[in-house]
Design brief:
Layout: H1 2-12, E1 16-22, H2 27-36, E2 38-45, E3 48-55, H3 57-63
Length: 72
């Protein structure tokens, strides 16, 4: 049981909340975020879909180019 807690803390402890602006022509990424992450907020804007989600380090790297520098 203690080992399970340590493993979960190591795996899930690195998750972070980030905001991404996904262009409308990248709709597959919106689907990906909705299926593979915990989406906290979604806002449809003139220039794309603004999504705040809890992501792991691998997902963060995959989505880095869409990251909003200042949280909106």
């Amino acid at each position: 049981e203690a080992l399970t807690r340590l493993i979960k803390a190591d795996i899930f402890g690195q998750d972070e909340e980030h905001t991404y602006l996904i262009p409308f022509d990248q709709g597959q990424l919106v689907s990906y975020l909705n299926q593979e992450t915990v989406v906290k907020a979604t806002d449809y804007r003139e220039d794309g879909t603004l999504i705040t989600a809890v992501v792991n380090p691998v997902q963060k790297g995959k989505l880095a180019r869409f990251a909003v520098k200042e949280e909106v």
